[in-house]
């Protein structure tokens, strides 16, 4: 503890009013004692409040030692407790309260303490000088007449209460008690110094009288609370290091409670009168060695074990090394992640982590630390957790694929004991790696894990084996990369083409299509170029489909139109892209529209011209003559009986005969029975 550290006083169960002394104001000349003045630990023990032995001390005084209660340079480190006096004081002991019998202590709120035993203001200060710890206490009382015994007790544990509800010390080994007396308005003297040995008070190792000095004012003085007549103001200083014999060992852990009691008369059988209780912070000569265990985010983590060499515990059975576990009997701090050894012998130490908290990755790096007397030293060990990483790939291309979902579950070890189970989405929840297809899960406790792919990326199927087992995170392998990636097969697509009539928009069956996979140039090159996937023929609903299609760009090519229809002017469809985002759906159906074929022209019907044929003889009734008749010789023309008639009448006659014969033949043909 530094020489600026002060006691911190609070009203105890005694319900005293607490005032913090924050300044001395303007100094007032005050009478110092005429003799018996001394300086201990750089502090004036002279029966007055301000600096100086020359009967004209002031609030400011010269810089540096010696100092006094009113010195400006220590004023903010002086603590001030006020215990009410007279009838306002409700912390007066009742009858039968004896010093050595804590169970007899009880309050008598309806009475007031005798004036000479009525405690008023208390001032406390401490400092380290020359490696020794000094404490200083001053107090005043209401009156000066009568013999009074005072007990000043410093305890390492906070006060507790007895069966009467009165605040009493919780005594432990090496608690300190000073006994002081005042004979009327005579001299103030420190009589004895005792330490508690666990069951009784015994003389302190340095209790010969050289370790302390005390004095009461032998004339009126002035304090911050006003004038104090002779023998009303008492002060003492004592060397705690010497009193406790703590040159080479830390015999106390630091005092937390102060109890000041008054008693009329002498001897421990006399009745106690008044008491004041406060909490203080008086350090041990030993230091305070703290080991903190934190995670990478700075959070405290409990459960670690450390080794400290040499053993810092005073007078330890094994001085070579201390093994200390967070919150074991040697750790005085109940907080998880904070190991506090108090008191710890001043010296140089090596601190190592023997084992990390459960599930954490330990470190074998030792830390060196120096602990000064009355000092405090802290070392911080940082532990991290493990990580798991793996890849998600396209089974066909081997390229990374994003956004699958996995579960990571601990099956053995610390992780399993803690019930670790994590859902992670690639580039989403709990994934610490921003790259697509790379999953990194951090802050996993040591243990054995199983990784399961539960949801495949869009456009993919789960692999045949979606599980990786026996993945171990340990101190030797804190960051595990799963060697076998998760490779997912693609979902296959199907494409449909539709054929309708241009005129009626009705579906047409019988159209033949070929499906091509583009070679990458973005232009249809069928039938000479690109890759023919297959063909199909439309059914009654006008559609046909090809399935089992991988990712890529496709187009339809109409090979043959249905009967009665013509191929369209454009026989290619637009490009149809099959990707991971649409392969599991039904891409739009492509429609081809075919115009009807033009019909053959039909000739106009006309009368057929008769084909000239030899007229068949007209059948006649048979004549009874068995012989053919003799031909008749034509009669000669009356004009020219010797030549052929070549006149007009002769021609007209032949024409008439010919026409008659033709008509006769036609009639005969019409009446002739059909013969094969």
UniProtKB/TrEMBL annotation:
Entry-linked Gene3D superfamilies: Immunoglobulins
Ranges where the SpaA-like prealbumin fold domain occurs: 287-383, 386-476, 494-573
GO biological process: carbohydrate metabolic process
Domain of life: Bacteria
Transmembrane regions listed in the UniProt entry: 651-670
Record keywords, A-Z: Membrane, Secreted, Signal, Transmembrane, Transmembrane helix
Compositional bias ranges of the Polar residues kind: 103-114
Pfam families: SpaA (PF17802)
Annotated region described as Disordered, given as residue ranges: 80-117, 583-650
Composition bias, Pro residues: 596-641
Family named by the database record: Belongs to the serine-aspartate repeat-containing protein (SDr) family.
Protein name, per record: LPXTG-motif cell wall-anchored protein
Organism: Haloactinopolyspora alba
């Amino acid at each position: 503890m530094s020489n600026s550290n002060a006691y911190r006083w609070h009203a105890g169960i005694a319900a005293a009013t607490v005032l913090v002394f924050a300044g001395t104001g303007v100094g007032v000349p005050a009478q110092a004692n005429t003799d018996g003045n001394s300086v201990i630990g750089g502090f004036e023990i002279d029966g007055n409040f301000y600096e100086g032995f020359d009967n004209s001390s002031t609030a400011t005084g010269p810089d540096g030692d010696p100092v006094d209660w009113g010195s400006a340079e220590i004023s903010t480190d002086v603590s001030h407790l006020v215990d009410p006096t007279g009838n306002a004081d409700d912390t007066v002991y009742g009858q039968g309260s004896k010093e050595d019998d804590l169970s007899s202590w009880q309050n008598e709120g309806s009475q007031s303490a005798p004036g000479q035993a009525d405690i008023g203001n208390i001032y406390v200060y401490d400092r380290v000088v020359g490696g020794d710890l000094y404490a200083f206490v001053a107090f005043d009382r209401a009156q000066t007449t009568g013999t009074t015994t005072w007990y000043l007790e410093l305890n390492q544990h906070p006060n507790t209460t007895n069966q009467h509800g009165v605040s009493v010390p919780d005594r432990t080994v090496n608690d300190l008690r000073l006994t002081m007396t005042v004979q009327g308005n005579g001299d103030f003297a420190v009589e004895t110094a005792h330490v508690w040995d666990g069951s009784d008070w015994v003389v302190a190792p340095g209790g010969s009288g050289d370790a302390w000095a005390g004095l009461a004012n032998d004339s009126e003085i002035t304090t911050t609370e006003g004038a104090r007549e002779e023998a009303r103001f008492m002060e003492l200083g004592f060397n705690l290091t010497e009193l406790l014999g703590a040159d080479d060992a830390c015999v106390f852990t630091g005092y937390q409670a102060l109890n000041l009691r008054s008693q009329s008369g002498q001897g421990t059988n006399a009745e106690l009168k008044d008491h004041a209780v406060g909490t203080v912070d008086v350090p041990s000569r030993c230091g305070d060695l703290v080991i903190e265990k934190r995670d990478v985010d700075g959070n405290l983590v409990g459960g670690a074990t450390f080794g400290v060499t040499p053993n810092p515990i005073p007078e330890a059975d094994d001085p070579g090394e201390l093994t200390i576990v967070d919150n074991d009997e040697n750790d005085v701090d109940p907080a998880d992640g904070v190991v506090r050894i108090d008191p710890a012998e001043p010296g140089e130490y090596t601190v190592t982590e023997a084992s990390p908290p459960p599930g954490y990755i330990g470190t074998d790096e030792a830390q060196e630390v120096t602990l000064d007397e009355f000092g405090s030293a802290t070392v911080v060990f940082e532990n991290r957790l493990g990580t798991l990483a793996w890849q998600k790939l396209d089974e066909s291309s081997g390229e990374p694929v994003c956004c699958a979902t996995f579960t990571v579950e601990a099956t053995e070890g610390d992780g399993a004991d803690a019930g670790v189970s994590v859902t992670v989405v690639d580039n989403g929840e709990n994934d610490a790696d921003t790259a697509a297809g790379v999953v990194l899960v951090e802050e996993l406790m040591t243990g054995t894990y199983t990784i399961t792919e539960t949801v495949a990326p869009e456009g993919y199927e789960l692999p045949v084996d979606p599980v990786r087992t026996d993945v171990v995170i340990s101190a030797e392998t804190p960051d595990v990369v799963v060697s076998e990636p998760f490779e997912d097969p693609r979902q296959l697509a199907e494409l449909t083409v539709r054929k309708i009539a241009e005129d009626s928009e009705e579906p047409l069956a019988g159209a033949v299509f070929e499906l091509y996979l583009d070679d990458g140039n973005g232009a249809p090159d069928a039938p000479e170029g690109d890759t023919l996937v297959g063909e199909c023929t439309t059914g009654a609903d006008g559609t046909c489909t090809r399935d089992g299609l991988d990712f890529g760009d496709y187009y339809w090519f109409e090979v043959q139109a249905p009967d009665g229809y013509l191929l369209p002017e454009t026989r290619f469809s637009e490009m149809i892209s099959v990707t991971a985002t649409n392969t599991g759906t039904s891409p739009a159906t492509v429609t081809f529209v075919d115009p009807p074929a033009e019909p053959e022209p039909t000739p106009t019907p006309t009368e057929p011209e008769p084909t000239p044929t030899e007229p068949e003889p007209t059948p006649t009734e048979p004549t009874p003559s068995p012989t053919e008749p003799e031909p008749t010789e034509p009669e000669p023309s009356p004009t020219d009986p010797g030549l052929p008639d070549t006149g007009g009448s002769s021609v007209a006659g032949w024409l008439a005969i010919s026409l008659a014969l033709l008509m006769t033949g036609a009639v005969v043909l019409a009446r002739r029975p059909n013969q094969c």
